[in-house]
Amino acid sequence: MSRSSSGDRVTYGGTACRRRQPHTALAGWEPPGVPALRTRL
Fold it and tell me: What residue spans carry the region label Disordered (predicted)?
């Protein structure tokens, strides 16, 4: 598991996103499954 901070920029499936809130990465918490955690850029 990895921990991310609010405001981190990440790329998933070729799409850039910014984290809305800090969270620990867990299976099933990918961007399509939990859109409330990320903002698409």
Answer: 1-41
Could you count the other beta carbons within 10 Å of the beta carbon of residue 2?
7
The SS3 of residue 10 is: strand
- Please state the domain extents for the chain: 3-40
pLDDT tens for 4-29 read 888 899 898 999 999 999 888 888 88
Cα–Cα distance for residue pair 39/34, rounded to 1 Å: 11
Output the DSSP codes for 12-37. ETTEEEEESS-EE--TT-STTT-GGG
Instruction: Give the number of C-alpha atoms closer than 13 A to the C-alpha of residue 33, restricted to the C-beta side.
Output: 6
